[in-house]
Amino acid sequence: MVAHVLSSLRFALRSLRRNPSHSIVAVLILALGIGANTAVYSVVRAVLLRPLPYERPDRLVVITETRKEREISVAFPNFLDWRREARGFEEMAAFVGSRVNLTGAGEPERIRGQMVTANLFRTLGMRPALGRDFLPAEDQPGAPASVILGDGLWRRRFGGSTGVVGTTIQLDGKPFQIVGVMPAGFDFPSGIVFGKAELWTPVGLRNAEWENRDSHPGLVAIGRLEDGASLSSARTELSAIASRLATAYPASNQEIGVILRDAREALVGEAKEPLLILLGVVALVLLIATANVAGLQIVRAVSRRQEFAVRAALGAGRRHLVGPLLAEGLVLGAAGGAAGLLLGAWGTWLARPLFGSVPRGSEARLDWQVLVMVAAVSIGTAIIFGLAPAFGTLAKGGGLRARGAAASSQRTRRALVAAEAALALVLLVGSALLLRSLVAMQRETGGITPGGVLTWETGLPGERYDVDSGRPTLRFYGELMGQVKGLPGVESVGAISTLPFTGSGSQSGIRPRGGSVDQQVSVDVSVVTPGYFSAMGVALVRGRVFNEEDRPPVAPVAVVDERFAARLWPGQDPIGKQVEGWGFQELTVVGVVRHVTSYGVTADSREELYVPHAHRPYTRMFGVARVSGNPVMLAPAVRRAVTSLDPVLPVYNIRVMDDVVAETVAAPRLVTLLTSLFAVLALALSAVGVYGLLAFAVSERTREIGVRAALGASPSSIVALVAREAIALVTVGLAAGVAGSLATTRLLGGLIFRVERLDPVSFVVASVVLLAAALLAALVPARRAARISPLEAIRAE
């Protein structure tokens, strides 16, 4: 048996070497299909399949809250009650994203961090590589300020010195003692909610707002289940606690529920759907490539009819005739798999930065599971295009089909090419839908007017800006807005606590003053300065926006968006209405503005309430300036204005608002780009299939075409004959492809924006492109057929 296999493989190698052009084309086609699958699967494995890098990650769950079925962050008092009462958890911790100014150790730097409960690292099953973990006492207000550094920050700012533990650094102007350094490679929360952190501080440093059950300051909880507990039982237990809290605190908790998700599922978030779609796309490309190579192998088998006839006459049975064909398939599959692995490695290298914004996308690599996938795909495809020619050219009894071998193989090839066309159409329709959707996304601005707007971020250190009184903060931002407003070309300037499209800020339950809990809605709350709405281009719908008079001792006022007004006071004039919540007993609505889709131009977002900065003097704000010229040219002047007010205060994230808006469609743009690229590849492979089929058909029908020419058929009529065959072939594929597209476009529902799933333009354009490609592929065989003379036909016989 082994000797027979080795003999078949040697024979296959010799046979393929005698026809190198055929072998090279087949290997290249396979390499493209396998390479695309390897690269995409390596990303899918990193994001969706690889376990989280924590101890027993399958026991970790992420917990958030809901109000009226809308997800919101966690109120800190609710978290404390969960942790105290829940019995199905070994540990439960919480964290919230933060940004701090690091000074006193080189150049000032804005660092992304996390404020965490002291048991976060224990919950994850991780320990600092240097120093110690946070102590439980450091969760309490008034505790000494401590910080744990990430490995990257430790090496970048402190040279990897082990003596850094116990030293002090300045964060937002306040001294923090470094108590530990996390291990290299530790990444938390790995994209959950706020991206990668480089340092961690304890929640003992929280502000008074956290103690309010009605405040949801972006906090997320993470728990480790007890060994006997399940996700379902933990969800039931926390829901029961939430119900008890709703009874105990009806004003804040009556409609509060909980959401528990597996930690990996929470990490992946919205990335799962587009990644699985990309995996499906490359799988279709692989099917097209396999069908293409199977067609090539059928042509090769038919061209070797006489060889098979001689071998059959000498007594070779079916097994000995099929063996070489299968061996050729295995050789081609192995070569295509090896070449595809190289292409896949290159593609994975390219994919890492492309998918850098996807949680763990930058961790994509070729590991043993990816290699197993490549081997399985190579063997599977090899068997398919190894057996396809055998079934097409060999009779059931074991010998060669005496008649009709070419006709039978032609039918098989026609079916394969039609299948290729159908699969290509599915990809083309999907690509067209995504392209039209992307165009619609790029025209959308999410309720603002981003052109000509420059934004920047500043965070005032609490030690120098008396957070309790707020007066130094208000003085700084008032003077900064005045200086920037006086710069040449500046039309308006303002500031906001959370810049649109950069993540959600604080959420709170707001209801009409004196209203019932049933009237309460969960909204995003933003703090803004006068001039913000004009600078950002948020249209005023009714009433007025804030002015310099909206400050204490004047009673606090609010501006709401149109969705907020319609929800609380449908059909009524909201101006003059009063609301309560977010620590305010009374807020009088003075204006209504257009709704801003704060989480992205295509994302649904909560209703929004705006309060004046003078009534909530936040130290961290995003400046916004509208200019008449190029906003980038304003950046140096903004830096100088800040420096003139505070020489050591850094300015961060200076960007034009057009770029901020563009980033919100970066993921759809990437999916659309890759889908379109693979659709073009599928189209090219289908065209190769049409070309190969027609070229073979012309060679097989040389005598017939010669007779037609002898009987007076014109070259144009012969070209039309070949073109009609191409059209007929692709039309069959079109019919199947349209049916397939109708089914598969359902999968794109979450990715398309303002385009109908059954958009006729996309279907028509995709069909026309496929037909045009088929006609172009038929051009060379058609011209060759038109040049056949009767004499050539006789010689061919």
Describe the structure.
The chain has 797 residues and is α+β, with helices and mostly antiparallel strands. The chain folds into 3 domains: 1-58 and 273-402, no CATH class; 69-254, no CATH class; 461-648, no CATH class. Helix content is 49%, strand content 18%. It has 23 helices and 23 strands. The strands form 3 sheets. It has a 6-stranded mixed beta barrel. The radius of gyration is 34 Å and the shape is elongated. Mean pLDDT is 88; it is low at 190-194 and 395-403.
Binned, the helix content reads 40-55%
Report the sheet with the most strands, covering strand number, pairing sense and barrel closure: 6 strands, mixed, barrel
Count of beta strands = 23
Based on Cα principal axes, name the global outline: elongated
Low-confidence stretches: 190-194, 395-403
How many distinct folded domains? 3
Radius of gyration: 34 Å
Give, in spatial order, the strands making up the sheet with the most strands: 3-4-9-6-8-7
Give the rounded overall mean pLDDT: 88
SS element count, helices = 23
First and last CA, distance: 41 Å
The SS-based structural class is: alpha+beta
- Which range does the strand content fall in? 15-25%
